[in-house]
User: Fold this.
Amino acid sequence: MEFLNEYHLIGLLIGISTFLIIGLFHPVVVKAEYYWGTRCWWIFLLLGIAGVIGSLLVDNVLIASLLGVFAFSSFWTIKEVFEQEERVKKGWFPKNPNRTYPF
Assistant:
């Protein structure tokens, strides 16, 4: 950690990690909607709340920042799951043949 502080690299590490966390959530949204539909939104709410609590409880700036990014990416995913359902409805993504859809 001192190496990161000494060379002022912590901001770059947070930026790269943020990019990776957000990038990870895209396929999670697609898969979650495919298998569970929009009824999985509460899982992301709980993950977001856990991330916020963790961010508030951790003293390490790097870890607290990444927990915050994870938390708000989870909150954003709630919106994206509902939008993903609309994308499936439009035919932009495949429907799960093992699920019944409300549309």
